[in-house]
Amino acid sequence: MKDNNNIFMLKVLSLSTISTLYALIFIGGYVNASGVGLSCPDWPLCPAGLIPLEEFIIEYFHRTIAATTGLLVIITMIFTLKSRVATRGMKTASIIASIAVVGQIILGGIVIVERLHATLVTIHLGLGLILFSMTLIMVVSAFKLSEDKTIRTVSQL
Length: 157
Prior knowledge:
Blueprint: H1 2-34, H2 57-82, H3 88-113, H4 118-156
Helix pairs in contact: 1-2, 1-4, 2-3, 3-4
């Protein structure tokens, strides 16, 4: 029964993480395409502090979703590493995802400080794709756990 709870939590955490990450990538694309990437020229907070002025709202929203995504990636990694049902591949993907999310946060700050230098923006996107790939591996692995467990249970009968 405890394994089923672990599998359920791995599914919920990994799905929540990839959903939030997808939203972040979508919003990041909008921020880039609409040209509001420097509407909030300071990092990590906008000039008004925690409560953004109206002209900073899109960029501030992007940063808020980025912080939420970062927390979810790290929480998912911690849960995955502590889980005895998670596979080695899932644990490895969660570690790489956590390293990538920390890199994304640091790189996002550098992108703002360097005023959206094209090379840095491209690296930021590339690292985001690695992060998405590792998160997708975690989702697929979590859903395969229940299939593997069902197969084992049926074969034991």
